[in-house]
Each structure stands twice: as structure tokens, then as C-alpha cells.
Fold this sequence. Notes:
Layout: E1 6-8, H1 11-19, E2 59-67, E3 70-80, E4 83-98, E5 103-119, E6 127-133, E7 143-152, E8 155-164, E9 208-217, E10 223-229, E11 249-256, E12 261-268, E13 272-282, H2 306-317, E14 319-327, E15 330-337, H3 343-357, E16 364-371, E17 374-382, H4 383-391, H5 396-402, E18 404-406, E19 415-419, E20 424-436, E21 444-458, E22 461-473, H6 493-499, E23 502-514, E24 519-527, E25 532-541, E26 548-560, E27 568-583, E28 589-597, E29 603-612, E30 618-626, E31 638-646, E32 658-663, H7 680-683
Helix pairs in contact: 2-3, 3-4, 4-5
Amino acid sequence: MSASRRFPLTPLALLVALASGSATAAEGGLAGQLGAGQSDFGGVGLMQVPTARMAPEGTMSVSWSRTAPYRRYNVFFQPVAWLEGGFRYVETENRLFGPSIAGDRTHLDKGADVKLRLLDETRYWPRLAVGFRDFGGTTLFGAEYLVASKRWYDFDVTLGLGWGYLGNAGDVSSPLGWLGDRFDDRPRRAGGDQGGEFAVDQLFRGPMALFGGVEYQTPWDPLVLQLELEGNDYQNEPGGNDQDRDSRLNLGARLALSDNLELHAGWQRGNTAMAGLAYNIDLAGMRQVKNDPPPADLDAAPHGDWARVAESLQGNAGMRVSRIQQDGRSLYVEAEPTTFRAFPQSEGRAGRILHAEAGDGIERFHYRWENRGLALRESVHDRADFVAAARSAEHERQHWQGVYAHAQLLEPGGEPLYQAGGQRFNWGLGPRLDQNFGGPDGYLYRLMAVLDAEYHTDASGWFSGQLAWTLLDNLDRYEYRGQSDLPRVRTFLGDYLAESSLGIENLQYTRTARLGDDWFAMGYGGLLEMMYAGAGGELLYRPFASRWALGLDANWVRQRDFEQRFDLRDYDTWTGHLTAYVETGVEDVLAQLSVGRYLAGDWGTTLDLSREFDSGVRVGAWGTWTDAGDDFGEGGFDKGLYVSIPLDAFFTRSSLDTATVAWRPLTRDGGARLNRRYGLYGLTDARDMGHYWRDYPKTWE
């Protein structure tokens, strides 16, 4: 198995797991805190209007609100301290998609927001932020704003200027009209002819309105009261759905039901009730008390058998050992990580086991980390320093200063003590829930039992497969495919999901090779994913301890039959990308820029930005732009958000397994990439030394 397996995780499954309390967040929560509530639209704010406040870094907020005729479902993230982003679905109760799209189903609109902190609050100055609401998509509720917030004791006061949906009250005509006549009027066209494009031509155009409000922290800590002034007059609602408004003042309250769960209620427009819920998740602080086996005793009796030592290293240190070798005064352990995310934790546990077993002549322990046959790096510990530090914290600094790592993995000589067999088989069976929400077909789901298996022919080659059996679904409701003048490379998704209850999602052979000090290669062929079979390869240049890497993949694929067996359809193509990976050094953000050919034959670029927190959770977003133009499908580019969560955040035993939940507005044919099961950048994570010294204290856990 790889060092990390990735499982799909749906938003519903994520919330159920988090709400169950299996993941323990940092002490305290946002619920009931002054200036920290989620607005009706999602994102930190009052009710209908935003504030300049933001959630703590690493926060994910999921909220729902209803103010007739709108129901809003929101997911927002705080990936860094100065940026808030998220998306929402707005369900309009008295409007339908229409018979040509989804018959009698209520209209559902998708939107994305971003807010940027410009200035932080000081003793004399407020916090200042600029934001863009519903800026990519149909922009039915599109708005821009500049807002300031200042706290005085138990009051948090906000004042802002809004355009678009936040400026429909039109307190003043366009304040930017002096820059040009084009700022006087706001275009009615929203996000391109079909939506999905950035509505740049709308930004800060048209009349402007004043908005603001105040929050009051009551003497009863769980309760916060709100008063706000809206900038919307509800006379320019999407779809001609104008609403009566008796007042621009809204009254509301937030009540903390727990540290992270909050109830919202209010009276808006002077005539309409509002109710909502918000749940905040501390992704950066997610952790679980572990019940792992304790580290071995330094003075334990030796096994006298290196095969048993390898078993102990697997069970206690989370190292699948391929070879143990002695060369002079050095003991070499070649292994793949299987349990702990922090290499120092595995090395510290291994040092105790090796010290009890090794003869007095051994002075150094060398840990040679590999993954699926790829030798990646070596860590070296002085034995005497390690033992002294393990016995007394007074010697930790000396040990820390003596530890070093390098990538010059020369073949050691000397005596082989243990050699693992190259062949092995492993498998697992578990549930999976695939779902889609936000399209004209409403909520679609498929509950499956998935059998996952691997057979390793040797250290560098393995067969892998996934067999999915549908247990329960409502895919008979799938109808909408959307407009596309490109080959249907992804929009047949519903046919694949609905055609067969038992399908082979993956069946391939993969082989890796290290071509030089910094060069890695991988080849693969078979049923590569649910929709495509074929063959391909990847080449990666990744210098040791470098902040950047460069990869190239090329694949010939043919579309699979809907039944997901071995039959193929007529469509085939070449696809591949040149990808640059850059650890930016800014807030631990990883940037991935890919240029190449997509499944529909379109050429373009994908930009992926993500951040990993100390908890192991990674939050990211991507956008894809290609030369497909108007043929792209609905909208002119693809985009989405994702969260990758280590499963040991939910369980009491450490694990390298991760689960990923991703959101994208629609399935499109433009910008579609092959879903390769393995990638060299992920397999070569051990080349990155960025977290090693941060994780050093785990040596003693």
C-alpha cells in the first residue's frame, strides 16, 4: 500500500462525523462570540450584510438560513488570516428552473464569495476589508463592498459601502462616475451568457448604498443581539421576484447552543422572519486523543531475530521494513511509512527498538525512507545522543543538533540482517457515499460498498483495483446534462452512475522507478478510472528539500462503456500536462500550475492553491481556463474547492489515510482531466523537509 490512501468524503458524511464529536477541536468555540457570527449569506457578518471581521485561521463554517422566499446553504473557509472564501446555494421557493431544464423543481443558484482584509484593527482605527459576493457564476446576488468594523467593550460596530445587491437602495449615484461614464450604470448581464465567468464588467458599478449595524454581547454569554441597516431595497430581485420592504432596519439574535453550534433568528424588512443555524469547525486544531501502543522500552530484552524486529518496527513505529543492514558502525533500516504522519515520531519509536537489539558497536541509526519502491531520503541519528535524550529531556538539544537528513542514498555494504519478500496482497471493504447537490436534478446520491485491493509483484510494481456495488441510490432522477458542444467526456457522468449496480472503477498495473538523484518516473495501464481506460506515464523532477518540483504526464485513453466492465466506447484521445509545484513560503500555501491538453481536446491551464494546517487538514481551490471558449459548457471555466482530512482526526489510532470532500458547481466537458489514481508528487512527499523540524518534538511520543 502507499503511504497514504485517499477516500472520497461527502459533505454530509463530513458533517455527521464532525457533529458526532469524534474529532476534538481546540478548546472553546466561535458560537456566541461577539463579531464572529455567520451572516445569512455565509461568511462572517451580521444578517444580510457582511462585516470586516473574519474567523480564526483554519475555520470551516457550514450554515443554513431561511428568509422567505430564500433558503441559503453556505460553506465558508478561512484558509489564511487575511482571506475568507466560500460558496453557497440559494433556493428560491417561488421560482422554478422551468420545464426545459428541471420541470417543477425550485430554482437553485450557485455563488462564490471572497473577502480580503486590508487593515487590521488598532486602538484608534477599525478593521477594514473589501469583499466580492457572488462574483463568479450567474451573479444574481452579485455585490461588492468596502466595510469597516470597530469594537468598543461589548459592542461591535460596522459601517460599509455596497454596490450591486448591497447597493440597490441607491443612497447615492455611482461615486466612481468621475472615473468614467461606464461606472454610472451596472450591467444587467450576469457572469456571461450562461454564468460561470467572472463578472468583471460589473465590479463597483452603479449606485451605492450605505449599510452597517451593531452587535451587543449581553450579560448572558451565549446570547448576542443584532441591529443592522440594509443596503438593499428588494425592488431589483433576481427573476423579477421583488419583495415588500417596510424597513431597512433588521433585528436579530444569535444563541450559542454549544461551543460550535449556533442558532440565528431575526425580523427583516420590517415584515419577514428569519431563522438559521451555523456550525463552525476548527480544521487547523482538529485532533483526537490517541490510543496508540506506547513507545518501546529502551531497556527491553532483545528479540534475537531481525524478522521479529521488523515486525516490531511495523507494529510500534509504523514502518513497513523492506531491509535491515549493518555496515560497520551504522545500522540501516529501509522502510515505508504506514502509520504516523510525522517522520520524527516513527524514527523516535524505531530508535528504542533498535537500541534494544543492536550490538554495542553500532553508533548510528540510518532511516532510509521509501515509497512504492522509490528511495526518497535518509535520516541519521547518533545512537548515544538519542538514548541520552530519550532518558532525559536535558539532552534533547544535543540530539536535535546532531540529527541530519540527506538524499545521497548510496548502497551500503556490510551484512544484510533482514530482507522482506517483494510480493504481498492487501485488501479492504467499506462503505462510500457519492452525492451531488446544486444542479437542476436536485440532491442525487449513491450509497456503495467498495472493495479495494492491491497485489505487489515486487517493491516497485503493483496491481490495484476497486469494485463498487450500489446499495441504495436515487439516480433515476438524473436528467440534466447541460449544454456542451465539446465531446461528452464528463457530462455522461449520470449514465455511468445509473447504468449498472456493480462496476469496476479501477483495475491497473503501476510501476515506479528512480532515474537519478532527483528524477522519478511512473508508468501505468488498465482501467484507469470510472470513465476511461488506457495507459500513461509521469516524470517528476524534485530536488531534495526544495520548494519546487516539475512534473510531466502523458496519457492515451479511451472512454469506457457505461456498465463499467471491460467494454469501450469509440472516443479516444491524448491528454497530459506539464505541472509546476511551488511551496510559496506564504502561509504554507502550495501552488500547482498545470498547462496541457484536456480530455475534450481543449488546451489550457489549471491553477490549484492549497494550504495544509498543522493538523494535517489541507484546504484548496482550483480554476481551469481553456481555449474551448463558448463550447466549454455552462460557463467559460471550471472551478472548485476541496478539503482533505486525515482520518486519524476521528479515531484513537494514528493513520496515514485521508478523506477528501470536493465541491464544484457543475460537471463540465471543458477543462476535464483524467482522474489518475496515483501521482508522483504525492508519492515523493518525503523529499520535503519543511515539516521535519517542526515535528521534531514528536520524536518522544
